[in-house]
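Hi support team,

I submitted a single chain yesterday and got back a structure, but I'm not sure I'm reading the token output correctly. Could someone confirm the output below corresponds to the sequence I sent? I've pasted both exactly as they appear in my results page.

Thanks,
R.
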Amino acid sequence: MAEVNLPPEWSVCTFSDLVSSSFTGLVRSAREQGEERTFKYLKMNNLDSKGNFILDGFTKVDAEPVEIERYSLQIGDFIFNTRNSVELVGKCGVFNIKSAQPILFNNNLLKVKFIEVEPRIVAHWLNSPVGKRNLRNITSATTSVAAIYQKQLFGLKLPLCPLSEQKVIADKLDTLLAQVESTRARLERIPEILKTFRQSVLAAAVSGKLTEEWRLEHQAPESINFTEETKKERLQKGIREGKLAKDANVPYVPYEIPESWNWVRLGHLALKITDGAHNTPKVLESGFPYLMAKDLTGGQLDFSENRFVSEDVHRELYNKCQPEVGDLLVVNIGAGTGNNVLIDVGFEFSFKNIAIVKRPNYIAPGYMQYYFKSAKQRIFQDQAKGGAQPFLSLTMLNDVPFALPPQCEQTEIVRRVEELFAFADRIEQKANVALERVNNLTQSILAKAFRGELTTDWRAANPELISGENSAEALLAKIKAAREALKPVKKSSVRKKS
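Hi R., thanks for writing in. Yes, this is the structure output for that exact sequence:
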């Protein structure tokens, strides 16, 4: 085989050289499948791309005794997926599920029995880099489905090593690949663990627990008159106080906060809470940038759509909202309701289906952002109304209870959160690098196995198991003889005497 440097003790054969029997599975229409039926029915979705059989998601079918006898799977059966998407066709594995009741297999799967060959070796070869490439080369595909036909599969070249070595390789691969999968599973869980960690950090930050020891070491400053400060800043910026801004009392208290903190209605603290366009303006190729709700889904403002509006439209919307660096934008209608982003750009823009919370100077931008990230589900998902079209009204936003710490503590909270988030980011980056290496490790191990590198020492220690009657050539001859014996004997014709 030109693609692989095989050990001299190995041989090359075709897939068909090794087969004693093969056939596709039981045909059952969708109407003939269901949980209320009798026998589990293995389909292509019950076999993953690594050759593992998935126990969840079995459907069931009914079958006659003769069908049960023919289509029941046995431990050690080689299963090959002949029809699927281009990416998934060619999945294969060795059946290993113990079951008290028969498990039947679907007609998009091919069951193969081999002669004097370890089926795990064949599966591992087809999952190796060269094996996968060869399968891609024999795949026939349309726009909706891909297939690998039995004739093309049976024509593939395979490396053949002595039977004893096959078992050693298969056992080593099973052990090594299981270790790789275990490591991969642990690494894949890290982002979810870090997500929980970040949420815990935010919860501690906005409840005062993160700075509990800090407060013991720092005397509580005199509380500011936030009502007067907000009024003063509104006056300076020419913002009229709306009727929703007057009441400072929160409609409910979500949780306990330190004595030096205050629960205040967001509408009373904010300089202004309003929203952008309700109707879609005419979008132009140039002009003033214009954002929609979907442009807030990535955790930051996304101007990549290059959406613009005319100056007249922009001025009308901009003068209503007056977005500035440090203000908070909140999606208030549609599927992304509750997504929120802190404005971090200094140029003018306008928006649709987005509300704005204009921040007073005594609330740190970072603290406001972390508060809303922490409270997103409670504030937005619990208060947003609507089925197919969720909606977060300006009244609801004004009524949001806001936990307000002293300014100096806000600064400390932001510092600690940033420090802990940076720590989590470094861990996640390292985990992603490690995961990338692990993802490449499977193919590397398989490639080494079929260059004979996993069994170099074993061959040196066991020359009698790879030579003479135990050699790959002798094994291939034995398989050929067994295949000949399986062929039906032709009946000789007898001439009648005249």
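A quick pointer for reading it: The two ends are 58 Å apart (CA to CA). Let us know if anything else looks off.

Best,
Support desk
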